Amino acid sequence: MRAIAGxxxxxxxxxxxxxxxxxxxxxxxxxxxxxxxSNTGIMFGNKLYLKGYRRLxxxxxxxxxxxxxxxxxSPFPNIAPVLGWIEYVRPDGKLIxxxxxxxxxxxxxxxxxxxxxxxxRITERLFTPVDTPPDTAAHExxxxxxxxxxxQRLGQRVAEMHAAFAKPTSDPAFTPxxxxxxxxxxxxxxxxxxxxxxxxxxxxxxxxxxxxxxxPAEALLAHGATLLERLQRTAIxxxxxxxxxxxxxxxxxxxxxxxxxxxxxxxxxEPARSLQERRAKHSPLRDVAGMxxxxxYAAALAMQNNHEQPAEKRNAVEKAVRTWQTxxxxxxxxxxxxxxxxxxxxxxxxxxxQELLELFLIEKALYELRYEINMRPDWVGVPLRGLxxxxxxxxxxxxxxx
Length: 402
Fold this sequence. Notes:
With 402 residues, this protein is an alpha+beta fold.
């Protein structure tokens, strides 16, 4: 670790044990990635990737912290290993992360891009002439099987990541902790508060929504009491799981395809939350809910891209895409549950598992709805449909049980 003293604070340069092995003696062409996101990226040939943070916040950066943990303390192979980082140390001792250095891993792009390319092929297949050569149709069937298998593998990798987070350690920032019934009740009440705030916001903005979104918005508002009642009924008296660190913002865009496998990236957490919230331990089923919601978004975009087609074709696209979503979601969950069956951080009781997953699906969809209302009103239909499906399914199941 090295430091450079300045007039006001210090710049500190630190590395992990992997630095000397992977970064020592690198003399490569320096270039910028073709796609920039919320941070600034610099590549050193095809060996190293330096991420410079644009949004600087005092406190421990969760991506630096988690990256070190999964590189050295509890190694998880399906990440880009962290080699080092640069931070500013203020005179009061508080840290501000400036940059993160990682090994560059060759990849074929994000799982989001892979998904969109595949769904485009599905819709194009629906509009091709009926005399499509048999070998082309056979290839589409093979491609579908490949995608479902990859969804299952992704579920396995997410479970393995959660197993790495659940490893016992002397580091209090990562030590798994027990969960009480009172704490689960606090989770539920926070989601219930989110639901109240989201329904209020939706009611206020109803008149500003596109006409196509008003009907599902009105339907959700009409089911508002059912949603709140459903949350109120979530009661877990004897939690049989622990809470750990987790990804915190897991979706298809945070996963890179590497041949026949995946690399999970960007452990910063949800940008809208504080560093303290992003570093807090919770149930890793929040990550599972995030990925399932991402599959729903992928399906919605594929259908939206065909909204100008005639009704018959739109219906055909929707049916095909929804089938894909169902099968992919089931495969992802199957991979996760099979690999994570012994995880101490997920419930052993099937009903408790489902209750928690539904709670976090609602939480995520509420977050999405608030975001879309404020930032992308044209997209409010996606979380609206997701919330309606959760509420209506629960209402049907409750009626059947009665």
